[in-house]
Amino acid sequence: MAKNGSGGSGESAGPAPREDAVASIVADWRRERPELDTAPLEVFGRLHRAFLRYSTAISRPVERKGLSMAGFDVLTALRRAGAPFRRTAGELADSGLISSAGVTLRIDRLEKDGLIRRERHPQDRRVVHSRLTDEGLSLIDALFSEHLENERRMLAGLSARECVQLAGLLEKLERSVLAAESGE
């Protein structure tokens, strides 16, 4: 495996990482327990390290706006819903990135901050929608554009073709992880 992560393609992906900690960890295990297949570490170790750096980088602009990542996820889910930018708590929980455990707390905070408004359904008062306010819509539109640009910068070391290939492989990895979970 190439130390600089270029995969031998001859393309420069920017400056080489200062240290490949995963390669060092794998080398240590190969020395200490040569009978073990450490190949999973090379995938998940790098995935984990990349995720930690990614999480830090994407949370900075969100936190500068006084939001948590959980609040950001709620606002993006409401924005993706399209006009009138509203969903029930259950729909928010089912929207993909938001766990059901803290949806109500997140909604409470966003409502307190004036970014969303709760509205009861006119025919069924038991149904409550959370809807983006004008301020919430303006904030999430600006912040999401910044978020995508931030992610673009993080992917600058990969070609467009490599991004497509990586996205496909990560989708396949997610399916594999899910299959392993259900096989427990």
What would your notes on this structure say?
The chain has 184 residues and is mostly helical. It is 60% helix and 7% strand. It has seven helices and three strands, in the order αααβααββαα. The protein has a three-stranded antiparallel β-sheet with strand order 1-3-2. A hairpin with a 7-residue loop joins strand 2 (116-120) and strand 3. The longest helix is centred in the N-terminal third of the chain and has 26 residues, at 39-64. The chain is elongated, with a radius of gyration of 21 Å. Mean pLDDT is 87; it is low at 1-12.
Tell me the series of helices and strands, N- to C-terminal. HHHEHHEEHH
Low-confidence stretches: 1-12
* Total DSSP E strands: 3
Biggest sheet, in brief? 3 strands, antiparallel
What gyration radius follows from the Cα positions, in whole Å?
Answer: 21 Å
Report the portion of residues in β strands: 5-15%
Class by alpha and beta content: mainly alpha
Can you describe this structure in just a few lines?
With 184 residues, the protein is mainly alpha-helical. It is built from 7 helices and 3 strands; from the N terminus they run αααβααββαα.
